[in-house]
Amino acid sequence: MNTLLRHKLGIGATLCASAIVLLIVLGGSKGKGTPPSASPLEVDVVEVEQKDIPIYGEWIGTLDGMVNAEIKAQVSGYLVRKNYAEGSYVKQGQLLFEIDPRPFQATVDQATGELANAEGQLLQAEGQLARASSQLLQTQAQLTQAEANQGKTQHDVNRYVPLAKEKAITESDY
Fold first, then answer.
1. 155 close to 149: Cβ distance less than 8 angstroms
2. What confidence score (pLDDT) does residue 22 get?
3. Degrees (nearest 5) of the Cα angle 47, 53, 56?
4. Could you say which of 53, 98, 130, 139 would form a disulfide bridge with 81 (CB–CB 3.0 to 4.6 Å)?
């Protein structure tokens, strides 16, 4: 193992020495060259004159209006039309958006149908009430007639009892 270690150390020392020599050779060759001659620079000459120059700049930003309204829908639906131009003035109560009216019209039509149905049922119930009132009046008239007949019969009984006791009337009349 000792020989293996010596062999590795020898190879490492040889590589380091080769690298140092290479650096010296390369570094020494750069310093020996002559510097290139400098040519004179060209310079533009302009006459100075006094005049107004507009000052402007470019910036990135966003614009925000003095009065911004947050628009929220009160009902849900599909947007059919936008009735204003971007950046234009709008007034209170002005129509801004139009929503598809078909679902709302269907709801109104359904409610109208249910109302007509309820009104029909009300008329039917009123007819039944009128018939019941008529039957009640007819029954009351029959009751009054029956009470009158019962009163007449009672009056006849009261009149015929003393006569039947005296045998003034026949048994069949009694």
1. no
2. 79
3. 140
4. 98
- Residue 14: what pLDDT? 86
Q: What residues contact 31, with CB distance under 8 A and at least 6 apart?
A: none
Q: How far apart are alpha carbons 11 and 17 in whole angstroms? A: 10
Q: According to the model, what pLDDT value does residue 106 have?
A: 94
- Per-10-residue mean pLDDT, the chain, length 174: 73 83 71 66 88 89 77 85 86 89 93 96 95 94 93 88 82 74
Q: How far apart are CA 158 and CA 173, in angstroms?
A: 13
Q: What backbone torsions phi and psi does residue 80 show, to the nearest 5 degrees?
A: -100, -45
Helix (H) or strand (E) holding 158, with range, is helix 102-165
Residues in the chain, total? 174
Within 8 A by CB and 6+ apart from 100, the residues are: 77, 78, 79, 80
Cα separation, 99 vs 51, whole angstroms: 59
Question: How confident is the model at residue 33, as a pLDDT?
Answer: 54
**Residue 173 near residue 156 (C-beta atoms within 8 A):** no
162 C-beta neighbours (distance < 10 Å), count: 10
The amino acid at 92 = Q
